Amino acid sequence: MAGYLAGLMTLQAAVFTTLGALAPFIRTSLDISTSAMGVIGAAPYIGTGLAAAWLGTWVDAGRPARVIAVTTAGMATALAAVAASLNVAMLMAGFLLAGVARSAVPPLTDRLGYELCPVDSRGLVFGIKQMGTPAGAGLVSLTLPTIAASSAGWRGAIACLAVVVVLVGLPLSRTVPSARPTPTGPPQDTPEEPAPAHGDDSPQPPPHRPATASARMLATVRPLAPVMTFSFGMGVFISATMTFLTLFFVDTVGLDPVTAGAWFALFSVGGAIGRIAWGWASDALWSGRRGYPLVACALTGGTVAICLGAIPDLLIGVLGPLTALLFGLVAQGWVGLSRAFGAETLGRGRAGRAGGVLLSSMMAGGLFGPVLFGAAVGVTGGYGPSWIAMGTIALLTAAMVLPSAVRERSPRTY
What we know:
Radius of gyration: 20 Å
Number of strands: 0
CATH superfamily: MFS general substrate transporter like domains
Number of helices: 18
Structural class: mainly alpha
Number of domains: 1
Shape: globular
């Protein structure tokens, strides 16, 4: 089950992180400035942020096989549009569509993971499934730059990825694991009162249904406010990192684009290990609590980012390519934890909606990360101030969610 969910997440992540893997080639080919690359880097986050919360509701109500088939077609179409792009506007439109197309997959995996996995191992399972995101990023970082450096160019690399998406996505749509049925009848919206107890799988009484769609969405997101805040802040941090880490390796460390892609792949490998390790720790060491490991991830990830800005020569001189591995280990482990937290907070029948809302929150942060990072590089002429700013944002995010972590009870106590 966990492996299947990780496969779905790998597929959507490969599409979502294409720009990060091919940024040096696209920048050179179309003669795009670094600050403009930051604007383009925000496009997939805008697409996902606009669509994820509403598609999460569709995921809760729809058949998983249909969701995967429609998503596969959308992702392949978006990649074809990117490959045909001739200017910045067309690139932004293509990556915007890619963000919309992939945004149903994470809420779907949240729904399936919540419905099929016992609470005692849910953190680990969510960590394994979220491992698909850095796995997808690592795969495209290792393969697409090599193809782009050949006669196929970056357009050929993206076209190859579009074919792979179809060849993998359609079989996945035909092999969906059976999920426990969600409640039937009218859609279950979170009541205006607090949501069901964290981790409670028992049937809930019919909730009061707010009069308007906006009121229903407000009632849904209110219990998620602390983890939404965390997802937004870390969305700023991770979006900037995913967009500019490869360029940092090229412009500051002095690596060639293919080697920089390999280092970015190490960052992704570290992220995969971190998501599993932090998920396991939340189950085994914190009795299913998600708050404290979320704080720890933000603190350590922010600290490494500040070191990249303040003492890059010392850090990379000592650790070399292991710098990227360490950074991924501490900077990406929070994603699975936050999604488990959200699904457990809203409960059965609303896990997809919780995943969509949290994904939208993270993507909202992603609107700012690449733009702010790229603008700071353009103004200062270096990456140091940008890394220090992103690291500071991560530290502030940890401080903001700490009170909620202190108050959190283990889901096993309900």
